[in-house]
Amino acid sequence: MGKLVVFIIIALLALGVVCYLMRLYKKLTVLRQDTEEAFDNIDDLLKQRAGEIPELVSLLETSAGFQSPLFQQLTKQRKRYQTSRKSEDKVRLANQIDQGLQQIFTLSEAYPELKSLYGLVELRKRLMQLEFQIAERCEPFNQSVIRYNAGLRTFPNAILALLLGYRTKSLLTQSKEYRDDTIF
């Protein structure tokens, strides 16, 4: 009878540990799904912004005669963004595209003749509208990433996350400089 009691106690403890681990796993999964859903809400806007890059590059190359390695780099990043499947890769590329657009608009500030290019002014307006929409959705995404990353770093979640191969995610950064109305 004593062995049966010990066996029941060990079985209950094992069941408790398994239930606890399942609860931790569920929590980590919910946090990961929240970040994916938040990214899905912003992904279409990021795709639209990336879709404007060829027109921007074409306008600057043909109308203003600019040639820059930055244009080629931005075009490559756009292509990689459109073919990427992982949200983490897309966030990294979206951040790089944002920096590239900022550099292009900063460069264009130095050339007053660009202010009169109708196509560029219209394109900038479209990009600004997209940027404001992206900024509205960026905050909830970044908050979900912060919660996810915090969930991965707390004990005992950190142990389970390490065993399951969960990695921290990057925040989506948005430059405000090139959205300023004083550029054009």
TrEMBL record:
Keyword field: Membrane, Transmembrane, Transmembrane helix
Among its keywords, does the record have Endoplasmic reticulum? no
Superkingdom of the organism of origin: Bacteria
Q: Gene3D superfamilies, per this entry?
A: LemA-like domain
How is it placed in the membrane, per its record?
Single-pass membrane protein
A single GO cellular-component term from the record reads: membrane
Query: Member of which family?
Result: Belongs to the LemA family.
PANTHER family membership: PROTEIN LEMA
The protein here is known as: LemA family
